[in-house]
Amino acid sequence: MIPERYAPYTYALFRIVFGFLFFFYGLQKTMGWFGAQAVPLTAWPQGPAGIIETVGGFLIMIGLFTRPAAFIASGEMAVAFWMVHVGIIAPGKQLAVPYNLVPHMNGGIDAVAFCFAFLYIASRGAGLLSMDRAMGKK
What we know:
The protein contains 6 helices and no strands. With 138 residues, it is mostly helical. The protein has one domain (4-127). It has helices spanning 7-31, 46-62, 66-92, 103-106, 109-124, 131-134. It is globular, with a radius of gyration of 16 Å.
């Protein structure tokens, strides 16, 4: 069991890691890195999603404007789950209710995990090891 005194550091690690992973998802879309093909920034919905993931992930990772960045990222992931995974992927796999709503079936596990991780970060703020804290923001 981890002592409570380490909770602020574990939370900082949580924020940094989730921001880092989200940033890399954005770089896949915007830059075509990691074996992906770059998407034009005007292509709907991948272009705006790539911008939110790249910029938002970076801001969350360094802890700058953390609450608004995490809130926007959480919303983007909610839209991704409902619009892409439930609306496009599930029908393409010919999934019917209730299976089309199950993240394991429609491939939306990442979207759901990011959505709720960023919602938590938006509610809690940047915490330790962040630019927000260094600039004196709560």
